[in-house]
Amino acid sequence: MAEHHTEATAGEHTVRRVIQRRIAPGEQGAYIEIPFEMPERAEELTVAYSVESFGEAKAVIDLGVRDAARVRGWSGGARTGFRIGLERATPGYMPGKLAPGAWAVLHNAYRVPEEGCEVTVTVTVSLSAPRWLKGDLHTHSVHSDGKYTLEDNAAIMERLGCDFIAMTDHNTCSQNEAYPRGASVVMIPGMEFTTNYGHSNFLGVADPLDDFRVSDQADVNERLRTARERGARIVLNHPHCEYCPWEWDFDVDYDWVEVWNGPWAERNERALQWWQRQLASGRRLVAVGGSDVHRPDPHVRHAMPCTWVYAETRTAQGILDAAGCGHVCLSFAPDGPFLELRCGPYRTGDAVPAGEREQAGCVALHARGLQAGDLVRWIGEQGLVKEETYAADDGDAAALTLDAAGLKFCRVEVRRYFAEAGRLLVAALTNPIYFD
């Protein structure tokens, strides 16, 4: 018996279809398919269903789904819905690529009343689209010297409204196998390669090293090589910390530098100045941040600082790819100032081609959460280019612009007076926009 009603809607980033299907008594014991089309750029599939019995007896209709190649999940009568994403899924369902084409919700008509029944299936597909996501790229748990469980970390990040957290316990990768699969935040696999003379994060792979122990620079180079071959993104952590700085050679293989570690302090100021010198020398080096949270502390907290990335997908790979493009800004907290640089169609981390520089015009700062009295500092390869005190208190800073003629890059820092510290501290900063 064919479905008797279909309703489809489409938003900018969502496709939704509601399908009603009558099931006759004669179909008891049969497997029934409710076909639907998976669109291009699908990021997450959500299916919900309900059953209306037409007689006294209660209908029992099982649930599952298939793609064009295979059954992707089955929950029988245990659930009334499920989700399948690129990296995680409801138990009983397989995450992974949501290939465009012919899919179907599966039903087993296990028990059908003599009068029949009707299922109502709602299929919602979320489409990938570039957007800013926020989270923390440096955290610890009970899998090393932290006090938080992985479930604690995930729950805290969810409460903060964050999208991702990197699990970077010291010299171990057990956390990457034990993370809570049902968490709504993206949990990026990682490890903090911790030596006596410096730390670095390996992000994006569950098992980046077989042995972390090193005795000299050659050993360090070999460990970095292994992590790289396994697909890790490499971050030099708190390189100018007074307690555990990077004392190995800086001329090693790495991707990004952690210029902001925990609450803003002198170690971060030193890292910021070092990074500025690298940029001025012509390097296009991405700056990231991380809370380095270990345990409950009045000052060291999750997503403080908060790392924002402009990602194509809400997945570990999408987030790390975005960071690799330099589409990163940092804020002192998830609800702190958000900054984005734009120059024509180009944004933070991009390079404006030489032939388009004049056409693209000035660099504009788009921001949220600025406060009256915030000091906005525009910085190029020679240092401070322009400094202005923000006068409004609504956080709308789209009117702040810079004529970047002659500059090789520009970036922005916002410094704010924090009464708790009794001085000006960095409240937010961007990666540069570059000019070819």
TrEMBL record:
Source organism superkingdom: Bacteria
InterPro entries, sorted: PHP_domain, Pol/His_phosphatase_N, Pol/histidinol_Pase-like
Protein name: Polymerase/histidinol phosphatase N-terminal domain-containing protein
Source species taxonomy: Bacteria, Bacillati, Bacillota, Bacilli, Bacillales
SMART domains named among the record's database cross-references: POLIIIAc
Sequence ranges assigned to domain Polymerase/histidinol phosphatase N-terminal in this UniProt record: 135-197
